[in-house]
Amino acid sequence: MAVALRVDGLYAGYHGGRVLHGVGLTVEAGQVQALVGRNGAGKTTLVHAIAGLLRPYSGVVEIGGTDLAGRPAHQVARAGVGIVPQGRRVFPSLTVAEHLKLAARHQEGPMWTIKGVLELLPRLGERLDHRGDQLSGGEQQMLAIARALLTQPRVLLLDEPSEGLALDLAARVRGLVTGLAQAGLSLLLVEQRLDHAIEVADRIAVLDYGRVIFDAPTAQVRADPTTVQSMLSIDQPLPQGS
Ligand SMILES: Nc1ncnc2c1ncn2[C@@H]1O[C@H](COP(=O)(O)OP(=O)(O)OP(=O)(O)O)[C@@H](O)[C@H]1O
């Protein structure tokens, strides 16, 4: 199977201190790779280091065979990496329409058009004139996803997209993730809840103290969720049916 994103031996952190200690991770084309881990394990740091928002100390971040480690964020984005950041980062004073136009402005021959993302996320179409600060959490999340799609990614990094959402909205986000993978997008999904990761991911990796300590097909985790649960060492809801 083709590899969309390959991270290898990645070291990164802040002010010379290390948070990531030689992380290796692969996202296969058209697959959902989930990343779970305790608070502070380094998940957001990894997402930022991949996206070029944080310059890694060393290691490989390969997209479609090209090593982009250390390149600035706009170059990584142009190479096909989209990011839905933790906390959504929607501009409070810009309308939905303005967000979408801004995201779409640099792309040529797009896979995703504004019309296309509005068909996927019709709720946004009803909110085009609403400002960021007038949107619900779920609508902001949809906008963050729409904005990322308009950068024409081949790999989409989603950092806890369900955080703070009601259960039904979180379920809708998971449905969206599954649909995007089926449409051929490759996704790295940082997810708080193991049961939700099991529902949507093809593989699940665990990051702990900046190291990948587990990485296996979801079927294996579904058959024995307690192994991963113990790595997270907090009470996680069991997936339904297990
Ligand atoms: N800008 C920063 N400057 C210095 N240290 C940081 C910065 N951002 C994160 N850290 C530290 O890096 C470590 C990893 O944080 P990170 O946000 O990557 O973890 P996380 O796994 O995403 O956690 P969470 O699940 O809480 O979002 C933590 O110790 C955190 O305090």
UniProtKB/TrEMBL annotation:
Keyword Nucleotidyltransferase attributed: no
SMART domains, per database record: AAA
Pfam (any one): ABC_tran
SUPFAM superfamilies: P-loop containing nucleoside triphosphate hydrolases (SSF52540)
Domain of life of the organism encoding this protein: Bacteria
Alphabetical UniProt keywords: Amino-acid transport, ATP-binding, Nucleotide-binding, Transport
Entry's Gene Ontology BP terms: L-amino acid transport
Stretches assigned to the ABC transporter domain: 5-234
Any one Gene Ontology molecular-function term assigned to this protein's record: ATP binding
Family note: Belongs to the ABC transporter superfamily.
Name of the protein this chain belongs to: ABC transporter ATP-binding protein
